[in-house]
Amino acid sequence: MKKAVRLTDGYFEIGLQWRHHPPDFPNNRLLAEVRLQHLKRRLQKDQLLLGKYIHSRRLYKIWICKGG
What's the domain of life for this entry (predicted)? Predict the structure, then answer.
């Protein structure tokens, strides 16, 4: 990190984290799918939690549509 930050004309400059184009991210699709299945199972078992989840998703959608 010390090499990536330098002071130039009174301002800090920070080097780019992603040196590879495109960035070299690991494939986490399998992990994401497993987590989604666990969430689905949990929401099917708990109707109160499902209601809260649906409500929060609606709020996020409204917020995003407004440009939040």
Answer: Eukaryota
Residue pair 49/38 in contact by the 8 Å Cβ criterion: no
User: Residue 61 in contact with residue 55, Cβ under 8 Å?
Assistant: no
Q: Per-residue pLDDT tens for 44-53?
A: 999 999 999 9
Q: Is the pTM of this model over 0.90?
A: no
Q: How far is CA 30 from CA 12, 22, 24, 33, 56, in A?
A: 39, 21, 17, 5, 25
Write the pLDDT tens digit of every residue in 6-27.
Answer: 888 999 888 777 676 777 789 9
Distance between CA atoms of residues 32 and 25, nearest Å: 14
Query: What are the backbone angles phi and psi of residue 49, rounded to the nearest 5°?
Result: -65, -40
Inter-residue contact 4 to 14 (CB < 8 Å) = yes
